[in-house]
Amino acid sequence: MKQLRKTTLRKTAYREITSTLGRFLAIFGIVALGVGFFSGVRITNPAMIRTISAFYKEHAFFDLRLLSSLGWEQEQVDAIAGREEVLFAEGSSSFDVICKDPDDKDIVLKTHMLTTNINTVLLSEGRLPEQDNEILLDNESRSGYQIGDQVKLSDANDEDTLGHFSHDSYTVVGFTSSPLYINFERGGTSLGNGTVDGFAYLTADGYADDYYTEIYVKFKENPELYSDAYNDLLDARRPEWEELTEALAGDRYEKLLADANEELGDAKEELADKKAEGEEKLADAEKELADGKAELDDAKKELSDGQKEIRDNETKLRDGKKELSDAEKELADGKETLDFSKRQLTDAERQINDYDKQLKASKKTLDETDGKLKAAKKKLDENAPKLEQAKKQLIQAEQTLAESAKGIEAGELELAQKEKELQAAEAMGLLDDTSLAAAKAQLEGARAQLAAGRMQYEAGLAQYQKSILEYSKGQTEYEQGLSEYNSGVAQYRQGLARYQEGVAALEKAKADYTAGLAAWTRGYQEYLDGEQEYEDGRETIRDAEKKLADGKKELADGQVEYEDGLKEYEDGLEEYKDSKQEFDEKIAEAEEKIRDAEDEIGDIKEPDTYVLDRGSNIAYSCFESDSKIVSQVARVFPLFFILVAALVCMTTMTRMVEEQRSLIGTLKALGYSERDIMWKFSFYSVTAALLGCIIGYAVGIFLFPAVIWYAYQMMYISIPLDYYFDQVLAGLSLAAALLCSVGSTYLSCRLELLESAASLLRPKAPKPGKRIFLEYVPFIWNRMKFLHKVSFRNIFRYKRRFFMMIVGISGCTALLLTGFGMKDSIVGFSSAQYDAIQVADAEVAFKNGTRDKIPPSLETVLSEKTKAYTLLGSASRDLVTQRHVKNINLLTPAQENFTEFFRLHDCNDETRAFSLPSPGNALLCEAIAKRYQIGVGDKIILRDEDMNEVSLKVSGIFENHVYNYVIANPEDFQLDLTLAYVSFDKNEDPALQQTYIAKNKNVTYVTLFEEFENRMNNMMKSLDLVVLVIILSAAGLAFIVLYNLTNINITERIREIATIKVLGFYPNETAQYVFRENIALTVIGMLVGLGLGIWLHRFVMAQIIVDMVHFKVTIHGISFVYSIILTMLFTLTVNLFMNRKLDRIDMAQSLKSVE
Amino acid sequence: MSYISFRDVKKIYTTGEVSIAALNGVTFDVEKGEFVVIVGASGAGKTTLLNILGGMDTATSGEILVDGLMISSYKKKQLTTYRRTDVGFVFQFYNLVQNLTALENVELAAQICKNPLPAAGVLTDVGLADRMKNFPSQLSGGEQQRVAIARALAKNPKLLLCDEPTGALDYQTGKAVLALLQDTCRKQGKTVIVITHNSALTAMADRVIRVKNGQIKEQYLNPEPADISTIEW
User: Fold this and answer.
1) How far is the C-alpha of A1111 from the C-alpha of A1102, rounded, in Å?
2) By CA distance, what is A1066's nearest residue in B?
């Protein structure tokens, strides 16, 4: 029974859906829209964050970035990598550098050292760099490079910068995306025009440094990106890591200091060594010079000695020559004597030969007479002893003669000896003249003695010869006696004796001759010797002459040599002096260097360390704030949609329950329980809501993230979105949908079900008419057509519907207005900036300016090519507040006409213009003022890179939308002029002027603000799409609400409408009668909506914080018009649609009873 | 030529393949100034008859003449104009606009015709002079029906069509309303057509038309129409 009952009930429930499909679809639609919008917008932010989170995780995006002003070494990196909580730690370096792009323009690249585990790149094209001269470039801003191109470092870099790089040109090997740069923001730099044009990666060897500038740390934990868990983790670790970083940096400091000191010590030692060595060398040189000098002096003395000697020798030579001529003469004398002796000897020889012949003839005669003699001989023999005795006496004399000849000979020999000795002594110069003379005299004496001896000898000889003759005479006398004694024998004996005598005489003559010859030979020998001696003496003289000449020559040579030597010495001395000076200078220099090094070491400060988290990455922070826009929108808008969905469900179900009042009564009367009845209606609403929820959720979680992600990809890295199904959100959506449907069903049914079946079966008493307040103003009321009166009465009669309508319509209008307003604000900020504030046509950045002058060539170009210009200094500074440090652009206008190019007026009052700040004061842009709650009169602190702080008083807050400017007096900062704002003549083509000005060598860049404006607008196009989503959603909401309400309105009043149709109202009159209310409600709702929209727009805009951009919270008049027109259009469309329904109302309905 | 003339009027509703003839060749005449009662059981076709006569519906075939005008050939717009100027309706459930006062309800009708009667006057005529500013919910059923009659009369129509005017009223009030209608007919010479299932009312009619199964079962003139007060049911 129960089963059956339920089947029937189910049938009615099913049929209910098919028969009132419009209403069903209304609930379905509003729930789908509500849930779709709610879940879609809600899920977009997490989906975006998950996507980026996954990307970050995949590419091991760092958790901490450790910086030390002294850099890092592998040692510290290893120390960190070894920690338990650390997954990876890697050292890396990054330097900004100015490069030449392919068009030879200067661009600034931020170079990073390629890391292997952390912040891994996503290669888009090409390959990773492998060689130290290869480079990987930014895929998003390629600056016109192709793979294979050379990226040349510009000459505009200072030496410090270039010193970090191991090459001055790198080959492009690929293009990449980087987790460090997930958006198009590349950050600022102190180089070039202050903007980084792109990033680049080099290998570790691509840098010339031996240290890292930073250490990237990745923890093992991986909490959700931007989540509290993540922030808490980082917060918890921060103190420890700050300590650790400081300690590690301290280690490096100590090491660096020790190394430097060691190096300094080494250098000092080396210097000392070199100094000692140098000094030694100098001393050696000095000694050598002194030696040289001494030598020279010696040489000089020697020279003078030589000269003296030569003079002496000349004298000696002269003496020698004289002596020699004496000897010559002596020799000639000797020769004469010898020749005489020779002649004598030759005579003697002839005599001997003659005598020999005589003797031979005598011998023959003798022999012939021998016989005769022999007899006679006996007689003679008696005389013989006498002769023998005489003969003995002769021999004795001869002996004496020989002895004396021998004595002469010895004396001559001795004399010769002595002469020789004397000559030798003379030659050697051993004897002085006196002794020499004495010796010579002695020698002469000896010679005279000798000559006397000889003469004696000669006399002796002659005596001897006389004796012989005497002897011969005796012999003859003997023979005569013999002859007398014996005629023949005596004769013979005489002859024989004569012969014998002759032979003996011959023998004697022969001996004499031989002796004479020997003596002559000796004398001749002596002469020859003398001659030889003379020749020798001559030779000696010649030699001496030659020697003297040689000596003279030698002396001349020696003089030349000496002079050369002197010159050499002088040169050496000069050289020595130079070397000494050089040495002194070098030593001084080296000492200076060492002092510098000491100073430098003294200057090595305790390193400043920084522990930076991901918040320091621009893109990371930007993404958080940008994705927050969506989540802020997600916070406000979907609630609104859910609210409207609930209201729609409510009214629809209420209407449905009212319509089916009698059915409820009947069912009740038939005995169905209240629960069953409730189920029937709940089934209807829950089915619609569930379907709506499922479809809405399914479409919402894909459509919204897809559209919004698409939009964000214009600004962010192109990676596919990670869609995800959030169970909690799904559950929440489902709960909301069910709550809407079941809740509204319950509320609608509850009252009806309380009534009894009987009363339910009776028609419900129509809602009584009521007078409205307008009726008490007869002036107006009486003038109104009563049809209008009806409308007005109706409007106020159905309060819930009125409320619904107002909520729906106003919501729609508010959403539209917010959407358009967002667009206005987002698109409008750049035109507000560049059309009303920065009204200059272009910005010219230049270099080589001083505090009050710009390069003359630039001045010429500017005055020629622009209508007017103003000069200013600009710099990047950190604005320090109690809790934050914010980078701002500092401008110090140098000329009063600055305000003609940059209109400064109060952010709250456009008519209040500011003049340039006086020293000590500053004008602050509104974005900064609002974000950090800085007011007029507050102090602000501006800090530069070297931590120098300048404190200024805020004298005004000016309207500004692009960049965060602080304008101050040049006095306070003394910046060089680096910027000019220029305006061009209207007739000139700005692009042409731009090109012309850019050609000046001092100009770093020229930016047309018009281009800037366009670029800004392009950047914001992503938000455009978000706005479009909002507008479309608002349209959908408006349509459904209007449709639903009008539908209810018509069905509720179907009898009334039928009646007036019966009464003869034309269709348009009927439509007017019905829709006048709609239109009136639309107008009221719209008015409310406009107010609401202004508020909502402000609220939403306040949530959207984009760095560098301060949106102008503005809604253009046309946006109001659009919102109104669109709302009206939706209303009219719905009315048009519903008009057909009106037409179809059967007049016969009027005849039916009230249900 | 009668004031109102139905000639072989047929109304066939076709639902899918099933055709139901609500009116199956109805022919009758009504003269001007007559008080006509069309009587019949539920489903006999009397409401269809009323719809067609009142210009709310068109006949499938046949001719309908009202005051010499062939309304059976009228287009939608002409029918609206016809309803607007020539016909005054009195509904069983009054069909007053709840949001309008009695006077305004009358004016609602009066405003759209060429020569309406003054609303206040008509209301006074129907005896509601002192209830003019009351909303329908503040009036009794009879009073509401009188407002409805006043609304119909104010248009100064050629004929007054009343669909079960007493159906939602109690006996006495019903009688009073009927009296008002009869009075109107007599005094103002309006042609009044009352549709009812109550045969008792035939006694007060000048002409009685009895409908059954989509056809005229009988029609006759009542030589001596009784005064409503004399009729009992």
Assistant:
1) 9
2) B80
Cβ contact A1044:A807 at 8 Å: no
By mean pLDDT, which of A580-589, A875-884, A917-926 is the weakest?
A875-884
What single string gives the DSSP state of each residue in chain B? --SEEEEEEEEEEEETTEEEEEEEEEEEEE-TT-EEEEEE-TTSSHHHHHHHHTTSS--SEEEEEETTEEGGG--HHHHHHHHHHHEEEE-TT----TTS-HHHHHHHHHTTSSSPPPHHHHHHHTT-GGGTT--GGGS-HHHHHHHHHHHHHHT--SEEEEESTTTTS-HHHHHHHHHHHHHHHHHH--EEEEEES-GGGGGG-SEEEEEETTEEEEEEE-SSPPPGGG---
Checking if the pLDDT of A569 tops 60, the result is: yes
Cβ separation of B93 and A1154 shorter than 8 Å? yes
A57-61, A1004-1008, A1126-1130: the lowest-pLDDT one: A1004-1008
CATH code of the domain in which B106 resides: 3.40.50.300
Which of A787, A790, A1147 lies nearest to residue B56, judging by beta carbons? A1147
Smallest Cβ distance to A1064: which of B84, B100, B137? B84
Residue A1055 to residue B57, Cβ atoms within 8 A: no
Contact status of B104 with chain A (Cβ, < 8 Å): yes
Largest interatomic CA distance in chain B:
55
Query: Quick one: residue A427, left, alpha or beta (phi over 0 = left, psi -120 to 50 = alpha)?
Result: alpha
- Write out the residue range of the structural domain in which residue B99 sits: 33-61+84-230
Q: Helices A1117-1144 & A1021-1052, crossing angle to 10 degrees?
A: 30
Closest residue in chain B to residue A1064, using alpha carbons only:
B84
CA distance A406 to A1066: 203
Determine the Cα–Cα distance for residues A174 and A798; give it in Å rounded to an integer: 70
Residue A1104 has pLDDT above 80, yes or no: no
Amino acid at site A646 = A
**DSSP type of residue A1144:** H
Q: Do B97 and A1153 touch (CB under 8 A)?
A: no
pTM as predicted: 0.61
Number of structural domains (chain B) is 1
User: What is the Cα–Cα distance from A511 to A516, expressed in whole angstroms?
Assistant: 8
Contact A768 B109 (CB under 8 A): no
Residue B86 has pLDDT above 80, yes or no: yes
- Burial degree of A1129 (CB within 10 A; 0-12, 13-18, 19+): middle
Is B111's CB within 8 Å of A1153's CB?
no
> DSSP letters of A58-118?
HTT--SEEEEEEEEE-HHHHHHHHTSTTEEEEEEE-EEEEEEE-TTS-EEEEEEEE--SSS
- B107 chain-A contacts, CB cut-off 8 A: 786
CA A1026 to chain centre: 44
So what's the ipTM on this one?
0.88
Q: Which amino acid is at A1155?
A: E
- Within a domain: residue B171? yes
3-state secondary structure labels for all residues of B105-172? HHHHHHCCCCCCCCHHHHHHHCCCHHHCCCCHHHCCHHHHHHHHHHHHHHCCCCEEEEECCCCCCCHH
Beta-carbon contacts of A665 under 8 Å, excluding residues fewer than 6 positions away, are A755, A757, A758, A759, A760, A761
Cβ partners under 8 Å of residue A718, min gap 6: A177
Helices in A969-1110 by DSSP H: which ranges? 970-973, 990-998, 1009-1019, 1021-1052, 1054-1062, 1067-1103
User: At which residue do the structure tokens 């002559």 appear?
Assistant: A520
- What is the residue extent of each domain of chain A? 1-61+614-764, 63-222, 246-594, 798-839+1009-1155, 848-1001
Instruction: Give domain status of residue B2, yes or no.
Output: no
A486 phi/psi in degrees, rounded to 5 = -130, 130
